[in-house]
Q: What sequence folds into this?
């Protein structure tokens, strides 16, 4: 049995057994497919869209549909997945049923439909992807005890980074030059296989989860001010992702157009370098996050990312310096990727973690369309993508400052946070 409900201090607590390494890998398999999708969406799709339009603002928006759609969809899906149970479980149906649709639409896009139909397909496959991804992440709290969640999330992050790295290298070195359509086949096939492995290897158990009571929308909204630490965390995430979503669609374009000697293929390899550093550092950061303050580690990562982005904006004029800064950004990127979810579990009640992660997604994604459009507009106005990295650097440092005012472990009305362990103090 993975867990049981125990009375302690007047409230019901779920006591969970430790999760085995094999189950961690089974869970993380789908993260590999997520990584393929993220790398495709962030680094290859902008190059593909460039063959349709030269409007950088439009390219930024179409490369960020996953983020701003998630702001609308994921809070609802997260809350829904907290309170249902089906023969497949409560989280699994959302990603198991949706991913084949995503794969079919990706293959359709590879046929180079008209621009209008391409836009419609992008909007739809990112919408379906968003429906599946939030319950998948929330599943971590159902299968792992508090003291292992940073480690589990770090392994999932490692798999995401390996997926991104694999896609960037294979696309940049092989597939793109042969036929861009092969990039669509690769990401689609990889997603289908990896999500199938996770669905087969992770069986949700009813006795392992707490199904919370339904709440009306008005009750949801009225309860949020009772969680001020979570709300401050959400603001930090809003700033963090505003900066990331501003820069991500333009990284390969900046490298290939403004750094001498960098081709489109080399630009994707630079993106792979960033992802490789994230993969290399993920598990060490996760293990640290289960032992010392997740908040302090996250602040360090934000500072490193922000300073490196500003140096890119003002000083990069050669490939070696850009590569060095990509290393710094990749390391900084690891901290927020690995630690954001485990840190939120210190600020939110266990039985509502799917809802709270969905709200976090709303905050982190709601500015995506504006940040990508603003970044593209700045690039058009100033005639350089360097302006984009100024925006990113400022946002990352602002997120670090806001995080200083977040106090882990404080949950409203005597409720227990979803995670209480040595990493919380």
A:
């Amino acid at each position: 049995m993975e867990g049981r409900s125990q009375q302690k201090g007047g409230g019901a607590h779920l006591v969970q057994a430790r999760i085995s390494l094999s189950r961690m890998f089974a869970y993380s398999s789908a993260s590999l497919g997520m990584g393929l999708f993220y790398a495709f969406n962030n680094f290859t799709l902008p190059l593909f869209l460039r063959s349709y339009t030269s409007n950088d603002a439009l390219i930024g928006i179409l490369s960020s549909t996953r983020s701003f759609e998630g702001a609308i969809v994921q809070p609802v899906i997260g809350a829904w997945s907290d309170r249902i149970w089906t023969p497949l479980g409560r989280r699994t149906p959302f990603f198991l049923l949706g991913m084949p649709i995503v794969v079919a639409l990706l293959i359709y896009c590879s046929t180079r439909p008209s621009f209008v139909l391409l836009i419609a397909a992008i909007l739809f496959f990112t919408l379906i992807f968003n429906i599946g991804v939030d319950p998948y992440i929330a599943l971590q709290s159902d299968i792992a005890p508090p003291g292992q969640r940073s480690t589990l999330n770090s392994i999932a992050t490692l798999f995401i980074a390996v997926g991104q790295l694999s896609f960037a290298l294979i696309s940049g070195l092989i597939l793109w030059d042969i036929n861009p359509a092969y990039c669509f086949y690769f990401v689609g096939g990889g997603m289908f296989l990896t999500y199938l492995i996770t669905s087969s290897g992770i069986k949700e158990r009813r006795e392992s989860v707490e199904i919370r009571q339904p709440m009306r929308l008005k009750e949801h909204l009225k309860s949020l001010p009772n969680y001020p630490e979570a709300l401050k965390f959400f603001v930090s995430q809003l700033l963090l992702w505003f900066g990331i979503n501003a820069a991500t669609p333009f990284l390969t374009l900046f490298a290939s157009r403004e750094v001498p000697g960098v081709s489109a293929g080399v630009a994707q390899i630079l993106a792979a370098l960033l992802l490789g550093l994230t993969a290399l550092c993920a598990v060490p950061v996760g293990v640290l996050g289960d032992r010392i303050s997740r908040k302090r580690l996250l602040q360090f990562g934000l500072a490193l990312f922000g300073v490196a982005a500003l140096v890119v904006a003002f000083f990069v004029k050669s490939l070696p310096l850009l590569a060095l800064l990509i290393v710094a950004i990749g390391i900084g990127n690891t901290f927020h990727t690995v630690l954001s979810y485990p840190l939120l579990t210190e600020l939110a009640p266990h039985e509502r973690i799917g809802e709270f992660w969905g709200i976090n997604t709303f905050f982190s994604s709601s500015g995506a369309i504006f940040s990508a459009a603003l970044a593209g507009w700045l690039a058009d106005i100033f005639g350089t993508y360097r302006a984009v990295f100024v925006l990113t650097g400022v946002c990352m440092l602002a997120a670090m400052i806001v995080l200083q005012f977040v106090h882990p472990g404080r949950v409203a009305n005597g409720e227990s946070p979803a995670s209480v362990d040595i990493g919380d103090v």
